[in-house]
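Problem: given the chain below (196 residues), write out its structure.
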Amino acid sequence: MLFRRAFFSLSTGTEVHWLDAMDLADFPVKEGILRCDRIRLCHRPSKLLLGSFGFPDSGTDVQTKKCPNGEATMILSGTDAAGRPRRLAITIFSGWQDLSRLQSSGTNPDPERSVMLTASVRYQHHYDAAEPHVLLSQVLMRNDGKTFSDEELFPIQRIDWEDPWHSGVYGAVNLHLKDGTVHRIDYGGMEADLSI
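Solution.
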């Protein structure tokens, strides 16, 4: 598990507890990375976007899958400038509200035109423990002609939350994957023995 912290609009003249930030945690999965990020936003209403890199757009095929429990994925299939097959998928599990795609130019060094996938969420209330505080997502990439399996697209079997709202507002999050592994994400110890 790799933990990091991201601050938005950081300035040394601002008190640290009034900074918008995110606690970032991720770990590798087959063909990609699974993210488990906790928001710490002071300023609301706010909208967050998580974007993929620019995918080569040479007649890209777009496929969407949704599950009854709210999980959703968007898959791009296409080729790079040399004609080699490429696939990109972004899956949202919890916290994120919507998936979309954007046409762009100059965001990929290979072709001029590309497609970017984005997950988004809006926060309306100044503070609401029931709003999602932990955002679970996954980005997968393949450089062969194979399609992504449902097990790769939707690897989470169960999420155990320690807070009563199942939002991740406090406590650890335990991800039980379908391959039998369990990942415990505990932001409380992310700085471990750090001293400054």
